[in-house]
Fold:
Amino acid sequence: MISFSGTGTILSQNSTQMIFTNIATADRFSLPLIFMGFSITTPPSTRSFSFKFSTEFLELGNVYDIETVSQTYQNNAGVITSSGITVTSAIINAVTSYQI
Amino acid sequence: MLVNLGFIQLRFPSSIAIDPTAVCNDNVTNSSTCVINSGNITLSINGSIPALTSFLLTVDKVKNSAESTQTTSFTIYSYYDALYSSLVDRLETGLTVTMTANPITTASVTPLSLTTYAVTSYTLNFVLKDDISQNGYI
Structure:
């Protein structure tokens, strides 16, 4: 039976943490599933962005890395709509002006 | 939305040529820079452009293609900042132009004989308005 408690803190965009304390000795080998939800504004372009999740072990003021996973995302480009092209003259070889 | 240093790139089909001295301008960004490089037009944004802005880009001294067929599609891309990795919106299909053939107006037919049932020869005289490339035909 897992019976520890956790406290989540959003310190900044690059530092969001959840600390679990009072983990019982019996739970040291358990595999907890942790769900975290974030409401974010995605970037204004298709440039990729990533999330990095790390688990660390804190003991007596020391921090030990356990696991790290990074996930990269990329937005889809938007669709430009056009009402068409207006050509002053559509005759072949004509030197003309285009409005798009 | 595009911000300062963002840009819009418009590519003409390869069958359409733009004169190197051509000028392009738009109805939105009076102070932006429009550069024409072969069939590529790059409109660099000076200031920001909000979403749903309707653009009208005018390019002069454009030479139509040499065939009366539908061109491939013009393409339009917008970029959020000065780097190509910041693609925002795009249009890659469906924006085409269909050229119209030039009418041959100077033409005449001269039969050697106008007599009914005569077996005769005809002379057709006409002037082409446009070049015909190698392997073209009449």
Q: What stands out?
A: The beta strands of chain A are 5-12, 15-21, 49-59, 62-73, 78-79, 86-87, 95-99.
